[in-house]
Design goal:
Two copies of one chain form a homodimer.
Chain A: H1 6-27, H2 30-37, H3 41-47, H4 51-61, H5 75-91, H6 95-108, H7 115-134, H8 144-161, H9 170-180
Helix pairs in contact in A: 1-2, 1-4, 1-6, 5-6, 5-8, 5-9, 8-9
Chain lengths: ~180, ~180
């Protein structure tokens, strides 16, 4: 099978994530994606056998949810940038509608393989901690995935589950809590 | 309007949260709740005008998702117990199915008023931080809701979004990261 042109593939992914944002997972259809992207339905099915497979791939590869690990020169700067990125992802349109609709769908539909999205991001986030370890900024006991889950989870709690504003100071304060600790010494 | 007997109300809430776990929000109907709880449909509608109102109330008041703030004598002990509670809620059946289905629905259906669930819990979690402040365990700058969101969000990330095991050491390690900090000094 020939490769699909990358631009065409992005158009399909873009149509997929936008449709799930507009209509929810139940309203997403391969037919709808075909119509919106101008790609033949059978072509889409040749590459992705189901709408779950298509959305799973789109979550990881769509530019709308694109992600590059920050590299500011310090662990604190990198983590603040990371939290800012998650804040934008979960509060700014259209990314927020897409992320929330897709992740809510992933929770209810394991066949969507939604954790690939997080595994793929974490593979890139690791670099932040490798550089911090080289600079001697991290305790040896520190667990990179735990740090990411504390910080990203806090944004998710605040913005999505509590439905509260995530203020401009949120990233700095969350990173300070995790780096410096909140107890008296 | 007369009050409804508390036991009858719990049966309705219990039927509601179990049905949402089994069938998802789209499959939840007041008719289904009436049938499962043995309460007349018109009686249910008299108290809760829609299935969204019914599920919103059930999330806050159902015993299945019940919550009491721990009081172990130390901030560390209380937070470990709190994280253990969230871990059980998000990993043990039937609570996990209910919590995940209901919260996924809350994200997609704002009329469900799902953040009441978190506001109600936080009102009780505050006590942990009030006692810790009296004991002098917390930095003055520490923000209780941020601490809860970091810890509860990490469990949510790990168990629900990443779909990974939350190990027996998770609570201790997450609390240690937030209390003690992860950077070298």
């Amino acid at each position: 099978m020939n490769r699909m042109a990358p631009r065409k593939q992005q158009e399909i992914f873009d149509a997929t994530v936008r449709l799930v944002a507009e209509k929810g997972y139940d309203g997403l259809t391969v037919e709808g994606v075909a119509e919106r992207s101008g790609v033949n339905k059978t072509t889409i099915y040749r590459w992705w056998p189901s709408k779950a497979a298509l959305l799973g791939a789109a979550l990881v590869e769509s530019d709308v949810l694109g992600f590059a690990a920050p590299d500011t020169g310090s662990l604190r700067g990198d983590l603040v940038a990371l939290v800012e990125g998650v804040r934008r992802l979960l509060t700014q349109r259209p990314a927020a509608d897409i992320a929330v609709a897709a992740l809510a769908a992933a929770v209810r539909h394991p066949e969507l393989d939604g954790h690939r999205f997080f595994a793929d991001r974490f593979a890139r986030e690791r670099e932040i901690f490798e550089r911090a370890a080289v600079r001697g900024e991290l305790k040896e006991s520190a667990d990179p995935m735990l740090i990411v889950d504390l910080l990203a989870g806090a944004v998710w709690m605040r913005a999505v589950l509590r439905d509260l504003d995530v203020g401009d100071d949120f990233a700095t304060e969350a990173v300070s809590a995790v780096l410096d600790g909140v107890r008296t010494r």
